[in-house]
Structures are given as structure tokens and as C-alpha cells.
Amino acid sequence: MQFISEDKINEIRNSADIVNIISDYIPLKMQGKNYFGICPFHDDHTPSMSVSKERQLFKCFVCGKGGNVFSFVKEYENIGYLEAVKKVADKVGIPVDFTLNQASDSKYKYEYEIMDFVTKILQNNLNSKEGIKAKEYLAKRNIGEDIIKEFKIGYALNDSKYLYNVLTKKNYPLNKLDELGLIGKDGIKGYDIFVNRIMIPLTNLEGKVVGYTGRIFNDEKSAKYINTKETPIYKKGDIIFNYYNAKNPIRENKYAILVEGNMDAIRIYSSGIKNVLALMGTAITNEQVDILKKLRVPIILMLDNDEAGANATIKVGDELTKNNVLCKVVRLEGAKDPDEYIVKYGIEKFREVIKNSLNYFDYKLIYLKENKNLNNTEELITYVKDVLKMLDNADNLTKEITLKKLSDEYHLDYETLKKEANFKEEKKEIKEIKANVKKINSKDKYRICVDNILYYMMSDAKYLTIFNKKLGFLREKEERDLITEIEYYIDKYKKINLADFLSYIENDDNLKVLVNNITNRVNFEDLDDKIFLDYINALDNIIKKDNIKEIKQKINTSTDINEQLESINKQIAISKKMLEVKKEV
């Protein structure tokens, strides 16, 4: 079970300057007393993310993302909270004596245990005398011992009962082995799914083996590849091959190569280019797009050099660009795939084509011209319409450059093209952060007041004292639960700040969701006693107005004269208090 004490987490956070840590990921520039940078959590073009050295917090004023140093690393690296703590600890040189094992307390612990055991068996098979031919095949593909070990490549023996016998002797249930796609069932008996194949483990985002690709190697007439069926722990559309091994090289190189097959990925990886991923096919799912998007680097598409690969490049490229992922394209001339290209032309030539990768937009223009006679008016019209459709979601600058190229190359009227392209009027949104709550005029006034009151109380202990004296109560149970936790924290540590409190509530899912929502909505403004009192008074008025509404309703519906008089007196008392507050303000 993973565990780091609160004191250790606080020590790590207090030793880590958030400005220095975030500067390792994105450039920051000082403006006033804070630092600003391009937000990596949305498609940002102007510095929208503020980083406070004084308060050790970051906040994007466009997408709302914010938090402490652990929150940033967790979100940027797409990793778990404790792994983020460990990464920050490593950066500041604080030893943390625990091993990250994200699946150790998973509900699929048993399934992972089986897959790990099977992987070891398959690795042993490859090193046995029965695995000699498979190993020779890998050697011919320039896949040596180091890569075999790194990818945990194994061999399924030419015996349809071998794995079945081993696993059932270990008392693993046949139904479970069938569920995991390892053993097929024939009545009450079983048989191996993978026979006489090189076995390439498929891992999830945390590096746990969840399935296999079995590849033939001796020119048999059976299918070239067999993949594990979908199981409780393996959903093909949820993983990208080699993600776990490649994520750090990708961050170091600041781009990722995306290929079709896992053998292509292994071949490229074994040549020293480790920032490579594979889709294991030509389609891409929404889940895979999200994974690639969170890497926040350009993706170089290097799919097979055939018609299917060209069409897939467009489909995958469209999906990525639609989701604001920067795309480039390499088409490998003279070879069907990256593996063959490296064998024929060598790794240096391969590196060269990567450097000369085409912007996806330019590649698509070339693709749309293919198999068209642009001297033919009808085909030229089709091409121009295809280009205009491609420009639908492009920014105005891209549209202008592309349309001028079209106009010059084919002697078309620029204004006509511009009209057809439907240029958008880009409105500049001016986002003003108004601290004084009296200027807020919306139905969300209650939410704004509560969010900011809680934000202040999580930032400085004195605001809890002011709140208890002036108001002392919030309407919703989850808000009251948060105040109780704030009181407990202050009682324990005699102080509070938001950066430390975010770490403190990390293991409470309900509170974490509430606090994350609050920090996403508020603007991390400088703390000001007068502004806090404005929020308190405004909220007090909202609550009193709601009470008056309830009392009026009670007066109108009640038939008891004494009850009506009591309600009228309550209404008068509340109204007097509201007038007193207005005079004070």
C-alpha cells in the first residue's frame, strides 16, 4: 500500500519552489509580482496562466485549472497524485522511501498477478531450446537481448496445452483464464489461445501487462498477428503501445512518433529513437486522442506507406487537429513501413526524414490533389471545395495564407474564395476580474460568494474567525463539511494556506472534488479583508432575502392568525437587519 505522511508531503511542498518546478515544463515570465506562461491545459495563445511565488499556487484565468505544485505535475504528466509527489521530491532532492505500484491495491490485483506470472513463463520459453528459432528471428530484425528484456518479449510454445497445464496446476480458475484471453474453453477443458508465436506484452498507461500480441515468425499460413480479446483489464481503444516506456523520452524530445504496428515501434525504439508509440492499427479512438493530447507535444504520424496508410493518416490527423493536437506527417518513400525503411536506408536517413516532416495542413493539401487532374474545371472545383471544407475550423490567418496560395496558383479571385471560406469575425473577449462582489449581477451570485468565502478561509486562518463571527453558517451540507475540515486543519497546524490544504484533502474524494471546483471557479485574487466582508455581507443578504420569500409564502398559505403574525414579525426583523448592514457598508 502506498503511503506518504502529511508531514513529509508538507516538507516536500515547502521545499519545492513552484516557479522553478513549473519552469522545467513551460517558460515563465515575470509580470508584476507573479509569473505568467502559456497554459498547457488548453489551446492557449497568450500567457493565461499565473504562478504565484508568494502563495505557491498556479491558476489559468481562461480554462480555470489551478492548484499547488503537485496539482500541476499530476495534470501535466498525466500521472497519479503520489507519483507527482515523488517526482517533485526527486527534483528537490528529498528521499521518499516508498515504491510506486499503482495497481497494488487495485480491484484487478488478481488479474494483474496472473498476467505477470504468464509474462514470466513466456520470457522463460524464449530462452529455452524451444525458443531458439523465435530468438533467431528477433535477431534478424535487430531486436537484441536488451530490447527483449525491456519489452518483456516471450514465446508461446508449439503446444496447445502447455500454458493451460501450467496455469491450472497453479489453481488459476479456467473461467478467469478464459476471461483474460489466455485460454479458450472446449466444454470443461481448455486450450492455449497463443501457440508457436512470439509474444509481445501490451501494457496499460501504468506499465502493467494487460494483454498480448502474438506474431508468427516461420511463414506459417495462419494469421500474422493475434491480439488478446477485450477483457476487464484490456480495452484496445484505451491504450497506446509503448506509452509507458516512451512517455519520458517524449517529454525530453518534445515530440512523439506515432506508427501503426508494435513491431515498427520496437524496431524504431531499438534503433535509439525511444519517443515512439503505436496504435496497433489504423483507427484512433477518443480515448487514445485524449492520451496523446495530454502529452502536449507535436505528434508525427508515420503510418504505413500504402493507400490504407495514407487514408488513415488523414483520418487520424483530422481527429488530432480537431482536438487541438499539433500534427506532422512523414511518408516513407521506398519502403512499406518504418521497419523496412530502417533496414533499407539506415537510421541516419530515418532521422533525416523525421527532421523534414510536413505540417499536417500542408500534407493534407497534397493528399487532396492526388488522383485529380486540376486542369479539368470540374476536378479543380472539387479540389477547391475540399480545401475550403478543410479550412472550416482553421483560424483566420491560416485561412488567409491558404486562400492566397489557391488564388495565385489557380488564378482564382481571392475575394470570392474568402467569401466561400466564411471568415469568422474574431471577437476579443476581455475578461475582467472584479473583486468587489457588489458589481456582480447574476443568478450565480450565491455560488460566487460561497466559493470566494471558502477560498479565503482555506488561504488564511483569520478568515475563519471573521466568518464565524459575522455569518457562521452555509446552506449546503458539503460546504459545511468543508468548513469543519478547515477548522480541524487550523486546530491541528495553527495556520492554513491553500497550497498545503490541497495536499491535505487529496485522499478525501468528496472534498477534493468540491475544492477543485472552487479553485477552478475563483480567481486567486490577493486576500483583502474589506473584499472578504463584501462577500460575507452579500451572502448574508441573499440568505435573508431567501428567508423573507419563505416567510411570505408561509403567510400566504397559513390559516392560523397567530402563525401569520409571528411570520410578519420575523419578516420585519430580517428587513431591519438588512437595512442596518446597508448603512454599515
Textual characterization of the structure:
- The chain is α+β, with helices and mostly antiparallel strands and 585 residues long.
- The chain has five domains: 6-92, Alpha-Beta Complex (DNA Primase, Chain A); 109-234, DNA primase, catalytic core, N-terminal domain (DNA primase DNAg catalytic core, N-terminal domain); 238-364, 3-Layer(aba) Sandwich (Dna Topoisomerase Vi A Subunit, Chain: A, domain 2); 371-421, no CATH class; 437-584.
- The chain contains 26 helices and 16 strands.
- Strands 1-2-3-4-5 form a five-stranded antiparallel β-sheet. Strands 13-12-14-15-16 form a five-stranded mixed β-sheet, with helices on both faces. It has a four-stranded antiparallel β-sheet with strand order 6-9-10-11, with helices on one face.
- The radius of gyration is 31 Å and the shape is globular.
- Mean pLDDT is 85; it is low at 101-105, 426-442, 570-574 and 581-585.
